[in-house]
Amino acid sequence: EYEGDRNSDGERHGFGKARLPNGDTYEGQYEHGLRSGRGTYRFKNGALYTGDYLQNKKHGKGVFFYPDGSKYAGDWMHDQREGYGEYLYANGDTYTGEWANNKRHGQGTYVYKDTGSKYVGAWVNGIQEGPAELIHLNHRFKGSFLNGKPLGHGKFIFDIGCEQHGEYIQPVQEEEGEEEDELPLPVEPKWKASEITKLTLWSPHDKEPAP
């Protein structure tokens, strides 16, 4: 069902309201029969998008409310979260930063609601990867991440005014017995401290500080 403006060719063009065969509804701008311009799309499952469209795709700035209570507000390109935006997750966590292909990608800040901790740094395809800082209530870690875990040289900075330098080392997997079918459990990187110093300026690109 459609109620609204049409052009001389009979195409939906201008402002209109439509009910789709699947029960979704759209109210907003059309160009030559396609959703283009500002509009609000309500999904039958309770989700809602309000923002810019280009040729039936979410494109430009818009806000998407998901059925689980989460919400994304920011840039869209060809129906994907792309550019800069903020995502509020159903558990109360938030991510503010860059996106590509619907995933956290580039520079961004993720805040964990339960602990108040936050990750500020690089992301690759939705995973914490690259130089970053993990900030907790009374200390923080500065270093590099790989596959969502800290790895390599870094330092812990404590509010009492000192730093612990060291590195996260990936332990070697130990072979056990004949059972080759069992998948090895992922091994957490282990922190190996090297020295404690007063506060220093340091970035993860530097070599290990001179003794």
Automatic annotation (TrEMBL):
Residues 1-14 have a biased composition (Basic and acidic residues). InterPro entries: MORN. The lineage of its organism: Eukaryota, Metazoa, Chordata, Craniata, Vertebrata. GO terms for biological process: axoneme assembly; meiotic cell cycle; spermatid development. Keywords: Cell projection, Cilium, Cytoplasm, Cytoskeleton, Flagellum, Meiosis, Repeat. Functions as part of axonemal radial spoke complexes that play an important part in the motility of sperm and cilia. The keyword Cytoplasm applies. SMART domains: MORN. Gene3D superfamilies: Histone H3 K4-specific methyltransferase SET7/9 N-terminal domain. One of its GO terms (cellular component) is motile cilium. It is found in: Cytoplasm, Cytoskeleton, Flagellum axoneme. This is Radial spoke head 1 homolog. Pfam families: MORN.
